[in-house]
Design brief:
Strand order of the largest sheet: 3-2-1-4-5
Mean pLDDT: 86
Largest sheet: 5 strands, parallel
Radius of gyration: 18 Å
CATH class: Alpha Beta
Helix content: 25-40%
Keywords: Hydrolase
Strand content: 5-15%
Number of strands: 5
GO molecular function, one term: hydrolase activity
Number of domains: 1
Number of helices: 9
GO cellular component, one term: histone deacetylase complex
Protein name: Histone deacetylase 11
Distance between the termini: 23 Å
Pfam families: Hist_deacetyl (PF00850)
Structural class: alpha/beta
Low-confidence stretches: 242-249
Order of helices and strands: HHHEHEHEHEHEHH
Bound molecules: zinc ion
CATH superfamily: Histone deacetylase domain
Length: 249
């Protein structure tokens, strides 16, 4: 799911900005170069209809996951795996005391937002130190992703694959290598696949110049390992609304 609107432009001002605000367009172009995708496989997110908005307005926030529960057959529990460098206090506050949602969050404990109230919603909290490196990080991700999915088997995983964990990120304060990010995504997708749980990945934060290439490399790696399936993506695109994954052959 992609739209050129994702690429932030401010009348040329983005060129002065230290972040790569055009990373999503670059990811798409890298994947096209590798022939993994073409335009016919891209789904553009549509603007929410009044009916859609009504679903969310009863809930105070427009919340995609609540939308999922109400509109997609067969989804009654979900696990959020949040591996962006920041604590995910938005979804945590949204799903406080909501037993349909299991939250695992791994983040730098010293950076924004440090939201102590929201932390109460996290079932598996992995608090990282400044400059955490690949070996320790990947071991913790592996242990806690497996642990989370063993504790509760959800109908869907929502995976926040933020790349602001990358070494040198001015906000994240962690020191994960590009290969570490590729490996991290692989660990999460393998855990999902071995249990046959569908997974929704969002690319989220991380705006260094090399970020787009790393995201594309990770997606290509997942494809090469058979963890994402172009044919299935095509099927989903043409058979929306989503059928429950359990019925897939
Ligand atoms: Zn972040």
């Amino acid at each position: 799911i992609y739209s050129p609107d994702y690429n932030i432009t401010f009348m040329g001002l983005e060129k002065l900005h230290p972040f790569d605000a055009g990373k999503w367009g670059k990811v798409i172009n890298f994947l096209k170069e590798e022939k993994l995708i073409a335009d016919d496989l891209i789904v553009q997110a549509r603007e929410a209809t009044d009916e859609d908005l009504l679903v969310a307005h009863t809930r105070r926030y427009l919340n995609k996951l609540k939308f999922l529960f109400e509109r997609v057959q067969g989804v009654s529990k979900a696990t959020i795996i949040d591996l962006d460098a920041h604590q995910g206090n938005g979804h945590e506050r949204d799903f406080m005391d909501d037993h349909r949602v299991y939250i695992m969050d791994a983040y730098n404990r010293y950076i924004y937002p440090g939201d102590g109230f929201a932390k109460r919603a996290i079932k598996r909290k992995v608090e990282l130190e400044w400059g955490t490196e690949d070996t320790e990080y990947l071991q913790k991700v592996h242990t806690h992703v497996e642990g989370a999915l063993n504790e509760l088997k959800p109908d869907i995983i929502v995976y926040n694959a933020g790349t602001d964990i990358l070494d040198g990120d001015p906000l994240g304060g962690l020191a994960i290598s590009p290969q570490g990010i590729v490996k991290r995504d692989e660990v999460v997708f393998k855990a999902a696949r071995s249990r046959r749980i569908p997974i929704l990945m969002v690319t989220s934060g991380g705006y260094q110049k090399r970020t787009a290439r790393i995201i594309a490399d990770s997606i290509l790696n997942l494809h090469n390992l058979g963890l994402i399936d172009k044919e299935l993506a095509t099927k989903i695109k043409y058979e929306l609304p989503l059928a429950p994954y359990a019925n897939e052959p």
